[in-house]
Structures are given as structure tokens and as C-alpha cells.
Amino acid sequence: QVQLVESGGGLVQAGGSLRLSCAASGRTFNYYGMGWFRQAPGKEREFVASITWSGGSTTYADSVKGRFIISRDNAKNTMDLQMNNLNSEDTAVYYCAASTWSRRMSSSEGYDYWGQGTQVTVSS
Length: 124
What we know:
This protein is an all-beta fold and 124 residues long. The chain is built from no helices and eleven strands. Strand 5 (46-51) and strand 6 form a beta hairpin. The termini are far apart.
């Protein structure tokens, strides 16, 4: 198993930036593909970005492409999400997740482990 803890959320003005981090503990981190999801009030959880175990391949939702950057440091057991040019539609609870088999990584069904989430609020 792997345990995931997100940090870095907060309140930011539209156009600003935030950097989220996900710290992993437990089983070897670099076994897992990793992803970020988010859930806004009254909406379903949606895919934001994913990264393969090596960090060699990344995928982004269209809504964040060009604004968000996902990265990982396997030596430190961490994954980050740099979020730039934020807008009110980015307001949500952000979750990091780990995928044992790195399949269907754009779907929540592809992930086995989840963090508790961190709130991101963008004020206009």
C-alpha cells in the first residue's frame, strides 16, 4: 500500500499561481503512475493530470493544458502540480492518486490509492 498526503492548497486571486504537493509513504513510490484529480462543489470528480512512473510521459485535461504542470521526484517520494493563471473554475478540492497498473490514468477508476484532498479557492 501507499499513503498519500496533499499540501499547498489555499486561497489565491484569479491569475495567480499555486503549487500543490503530494507526499507518498509506504510501498516504493516509483512503482506507481500518479495523477491529480479535482472535485468542485456539486460536481463529479474530474481528471486534471497524470504522470507515468518514470515521469517520462504526462497527460493533461484540456481545461488545464498550458497552465498546469505535473512533475514527480522519485528520490523524494513526491509529486507536484504547478498551477498558473488560475481562474474561478479551478476552485475545487484537489486529490492526488496512485495507480498500481498505470492503466486508464485519465479515469478515477484507474487509481487504487487516494489522498484526503487539499482545498484550492480562486477568488475573482
